[in-house]
Write a structure and sequence with these properties.
mainly alpha; Multidrug-efflux Transporter Regulator, Chain: A, Domain 2; two-stranded antiparallel ribbon; 5 helices
Length: about 120
């Protein structure tokens, strides 16, 4: 059993995120998810793991493939580079959301044009 409420086994992490254990392990092998804290041969995952998996899910829903997500959020880069990667991902997600909102919004009512020299009435 986990020592604190913030520690989850891989099965609990899968339930929390709605992912399968197999997909979580796959994401780990691709570098999308950092390894768990291992104690007594049991891996424990924390809130950062949940957040990372939810980010990956959101990015996949927005059309990013796993290779692109891995380049943006994974790797052995420094903290500043990772932060920049997260900022770029966030901006990309905002841009996609704005585009979707614009596409789904009804067209704005345009008042009739008034031209110089034309008579109305």
């Amino acid at each position: 059993m986990a020592e604190t409420a913030n520690e989850l086994t891989i099965e609990q992490l899968a339930q929390e995120t709605g992912m399968s254990v197999r997909n979580i392990r796959n994401h780990q092998s691709r570098g999308l998810l950092p390894p768990p804290d291992v104690r007594s041969r049991i891996g424990y995952y924390g809130p950062d793991h949940v957040t990372r998996l939810r980010l990956v899910q959101e990015m996949q829903a927005e059309g990013f493939n796993l290779a692109a997500i891995s380049r943006l959020v994974g790797g052995s880069r420094g903290a500043a580079d990772r932060l920049l990667g997260f900022a770029l991902v966030w901006l990309a997600l905002v841009a996609v959301t704005v585009d979707r909102l614009r596409a789904s919004a009804p067209p704005a009512a345009v008042p009739p044009a008034r031209y110089a020299g034309t008579r109305t009435g």
